[in-house]
C-alpha cells in the first residue's frame, strides 16, 4: 500500500496570516550553520532523526547538551500536558504563521491532520478566514497577542478564563513560548523543511489507508476463534508525514512477548502487556531514549494478515497493517 498524501499548493501567494506584527526580515534559504552528518550522530540522536524532524535535530546536535534538554522539555509538553492535542496543534500552526516559520508549519501540518484537524480548517487558518469555537478562538487570540506585544489583552484573558482553568492557561502560555522560541532559532539558523512537506500556508491532503485485505469474521459457533500471532511480521505504519516500515516479532511462550524494530531509525524495543483475545492482538511498546514514548497497538489477525491502530501517547492514533513473513 502506497503512502496516500500530496501537497496542495494554493499558488505562490503569501498566506493572509503570515508574519503580522513583525518587520518582515527575509528568511534564509539554506542553513547558516552546516547540519551534522547523520553518520556523526549518536545512536540515540539517529533514532530520533529517523522518525521525523531530522533537520532540526542535525542542527541541534552541534550542542548535544541543549538538544537533550530541548527534547525532554518538548516531550513533556507533548505527552504530559492537559491541553488537548487538537488545541495544541492549532496553537503551533498559528505560531508558525505569525512568525513566518516554514519549518514549524511543515512539520505540524501532518501532526494537525493526525489529531483530526481537517484540511479545510488548516486552509482557513492560513487564510485568516473561518470561525472557531469560543475556546479555540481564545487560544488563537492569545497567540496573536503574544506575537504582537508579549502580553495577553484583557479581552483575551476573559475569554481564556471562561473556558480554561489556571493551570491550563499557564500551560498554554508555556506552549506558545516554547514554539515561539523554536521559530526564532529555526528561522535564524535557516533550518529547511524535509522534502515533501507543505510550504508555509499550504495544506496537505491525507486519507488514512484502508487495509488492502478485508478481515474475515472472527467468530465460530458464537465464540471467537483464537488467532495464531507467532512469527515475524512486516508492518507498515501510516502517518501523514511518512509511511514507516517495521518488523514485528511475536513469541507465544507463556504469554505474548517479542520485539518491534524500525530499521531506518535504528530502534528496537521489546513488546509488553501482550494479550490475545480471539483474533484481536494487543501489546505495548515503550521507547525510552532519548525520551519516553508509549505506543499501544491494537490489531486483528486473519491468517497471515494483521491490521489495526497504533495509539501514540500525546500524539494521536494511526493505522497499520502488514503480513507474516516468517514462522516461529
In short:
InterPro entries: AhpD-like, CMD-like. Residues 1-30 are annotated as: Disordered. This protein has 328 residues and is α+β, with helices and mostly antiparallel strands.
Describe it:
This protein has helices at residues 43-49, 54-60, 64-79, 85-98, 102-114, 119-127, 134-149, 154-163, 166-189; strands spanning 5-8, 203-206, 219-220, 223-224, 231-238, 243-252, 256-262, 267-277, 280-287, 293-302, 305-312, 316-326. The chain is α+β, with helices and mostly antiparallel strands. The strands form three sheets. An eight-stranded antiparallel β-barrel has the order 5-6-7-8-9-10-11-12. A two-stranded antiparallel sheet has the order 1-2. Helix content is 35%, strand content 26%. The chain has nine helices and twelve strands. The protein has two domains: 5-206, Up-down Bundle (AhpD-like), CATH 1.20.1290.10; 219-326, Quinohemoprotein amine dehydrogenase alpha subunit, domain 2 (Lipocalin, Beta Barrel), CATH 2.40.128. The longest helix has 24 residues, at 166-189. A hairpin with a 2-residue loop joins strand 10 (293-302) and strand 11. The chain is globular and about 60 Å long. This is Carboxymuconolactone decarboxylase family protein. Residues 1-30 are annotated as: Disordered. Pfam families: CMD.
Amino acid at each position: 500500500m502506497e503512502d496516500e498524501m500530496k501537497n496542495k499548493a494554493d499558488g505562490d501567494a503569501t498566506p493572509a496570516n503570515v508574519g503580522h506584527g513583525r518587520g518582515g526580515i527575509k528568511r534564509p534559504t539554506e542553513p547558516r550553520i552546516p547540519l551534522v552528518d547523520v553518520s556523526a550522530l549518536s545512536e540515540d540522536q539517529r533514532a530520533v532523526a529517523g522518525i521525523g524532524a531530522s533537520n532540526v535535530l542535525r542542527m541541534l546536535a552541534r550542542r548535544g547538551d541543549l538538544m537533550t534538554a530541548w527534547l525532554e522539555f518538548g516531550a513533556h509538553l507533548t505527552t504530559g500536558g492537559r491541553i488537548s492535542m487538537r488545541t495544541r496543534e492549532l496553537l503551533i500552526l498559528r505560531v508558525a504563521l505569525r512568525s513566518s516559520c516554514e519549518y514549524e508549519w511543515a512539520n505540524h501540518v501532518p501532526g494537525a491532520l493526525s489529531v483530526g484537524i481537517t484540511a479545510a480548517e488548516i486552509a482557513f487558518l492560513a487564510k485568516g478566514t473561518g470561525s472557531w469555537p469560543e475556546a479555540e478562538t481564545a487560544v488563537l487570540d492569545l497567540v496573536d497577542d503574544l506575537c504582537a506585544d508579549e502580553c495577553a489583552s484583557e479581552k483575551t484573558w476573559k475569554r481564556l478564563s471562561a473556558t480554561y482553568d489556571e493551570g491550563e492557561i499557564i500551560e498554554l502560555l508555556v506552549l506558545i513560548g516554547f514554539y515561539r522560541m523554536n521559530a526564532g532559532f529555526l528561522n535564524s539558523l535557516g533550518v529547511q523543511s524535509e522534502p515533501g512537506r507543505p510550504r508555509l500556508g499550504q495544506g496537505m491532503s491525507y486519507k488514512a489507508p484502508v487495509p488492502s485485505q478485508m478481515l474475515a469474521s472472527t467468530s465460530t459457533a458464537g465464540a471467537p476463534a483464537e488467532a495464531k500471532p507467532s512469527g515475524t511480521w512486516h508492518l507498515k505504519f501510516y502517518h501523514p508525514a511518512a509511511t514507516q516500515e517495521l518488523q514485528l516479532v511475536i513469541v507465544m511462550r507463556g504469554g505474548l512477548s517479542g520485539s518491534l524494530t524500525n530499521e531506518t531509525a535504528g530502534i528496537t524495543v521489546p513488546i509488553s502487556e501482550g494479550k490475545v483475545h480471539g483474533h484481536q492482538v494487543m501489546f505495548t511498546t515503550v521507547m525510552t531514549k532519548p525520551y519516553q514514548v508509549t505506543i499501544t497497538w491494537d490489531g486483528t489477525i486473519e491468517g497471515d494478515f494483521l491490521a489495526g491502530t497504533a495509539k501514540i501517547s500525546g500524539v494521536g492514533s494511526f493505522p497499520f497493517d502488514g503480513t507474516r513473513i516468517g514462522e516461529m
